[in-house]
Amino acid sequence: LDNILEIKNLHVHYVTEDSEIKAVNGVNLAIKKGDSLGLVGETGAGKTTTALSIIQLIPDPPGIIVEGEILFNGKNLIHNTEKENKQLRGNGISMIFQDSMTALNPIMRVGDQLAEVVITHTKVSKAEAKRQVIDLLETVGVKADRYNDYPHQFSGGMKQRVLITMALLCNPELLIADEPTTALDVTIQAQVLELIKQLRKKYNMSMILISHDLGVVAETCDRVAIIYAGEIVEIGTVEEVYTNPKHPYTRGLFESIPKLEEDQSRLFQIEGTMASPASLPKGCYFHPRCKYKADICETISPGMQGEEHLSKCHFSLRDEVLA
Ligand code: SF4
């Protein structure tokens, strides 16, 4: 099997008494073993919902996987039992969450929390678990003598290293990192990204990195998928997408990145706001904001076009239209 993960036509909704939020609307993705994919989009585009679906943590209710398949090493996770899901999260897929404050227990020593993860999943002795934790903490740059410290004694960057340790303790084949450096200042952010990159190589893990930051993805990933209103609108290698973005939304994202030499007051921003997942427009979901839209865009949803570098736009292959 070449692909460690394959998502086919995934639809995830959040249904309450008076609304139906269509958070993910037909996502297709494949990740090869050892590959890293950046998933880029604005807040509310469906990044985290896609990630939570993969790791089988969609809160149900109100979340429902309405349709689709999530194949991990060829097995569809959607039909997993709770026991199988625990195993999956124990040694198949790990997730680093954005908010380290909620991931760590504030009244428990950090080392003990990490050792507990090892003991739960591998049934080794307490002494052996402690040895493994200290080894890994040192690998991620946390000194052994911090084993007995509490979470509040760690800085933001160090706490993120602890969370990375927690994710790696289970020896995952696939690591999902959800905005792992957003809360950190720029220097620390660069160090943590470098660490993630090194560890991924060392342990030969596949990775999905969720971010709203194109720069972070360029630094860390081989491929990139751009998500808008719950759909992947463009996917390809970082090199192809960054040098030749085909979808108008992707082009808008690149044009929105501030450049040092430019007058910031004249910064291009994509006009309008993202379509509400509670009332998506007909046709192309991006059409209310798209400066290239034609009549067809208001009624017919475009298919994915291209082979290795794909874009979901009626005109994505016709550069003269998007010039
Ligand atoms: Fe714009 Fe039409 Fe392409 Fe949608 S399909 S991105 S509205 S040009």
UniProtKB/TrEMBL annotation:
Principal subcellular localization: membrane
UniProt topology in membrane: Peripheral membrane protein
Molecular functions per Gene Ontology: ATP binding
SMART domains documented for this protein: AAA (SM00382)
Catalyzed chemical reaction(s): Ni(2+)(out) + ATP + H2O = Ni(2+)(in) + ADP + phosphate + H(+)
Top EC class of this enzyme: translocase
Pfam families named in the record: ABC_tran, oligo_HPY
Keyword tags: ATP-binding, Cell membrane, Ion transport, Membrane, Nickel, Nickel transport, Nucleotide-binding, Translocase, Transport
Source domain of life: Bacteria
Entry EC no(s): 7.2.2.11
PANTHER family linked: NICKEL ABC TRANSPORTER, ATP-BINDING PROTEIN, OLIGOPEPTIDE TRANSPORT ATP-BINDING PROTEIN APPD
Name of the protein in its database record: Nickel import system ATP-binding protein NikD
